[in-house]
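Run: sequence + zinc ion -> complex structure.
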Amino acid sequence: MKVLPGHYPWCSRRECIRHATSATEHQGPLNELPARGRHGDRKLPLLHSRLTHVRDMCPDTEISVTFYDEGTTYDAAEADELIADFETFLTGLKAQRAQLGQAAPAAEQVTA
Ligand SMILES: [Zn+2]
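>> structure
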């Protein structure tokens, strides 16, 4: 892929934004977790992330993570923590998934 002058190799070429201050907000491609189940008809993904950088506002590239329409940015150390948290979450989600469909317990016996 051709890298445009003044842009990062990861830039999503049409999505970088030129602000009125003449600062460029560089944006990478979206990484999306689609909404499914009861929220599957929503237009927004459940979660999405992308690389972003505005030289005048932040010294380094960050990862912007948005849950529906609420978002925040993470530097490298914060992204490492977020990744570890996701791995823990996925482990828990897989364990819960394995327990779906288990037979209901027998009725509890009430002792007086
Ligand atoms: Zn760019």
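>> summary
Residues 76-99 form the longest helix (24 residues). The two ends are 75 Å apart (CA to CA).
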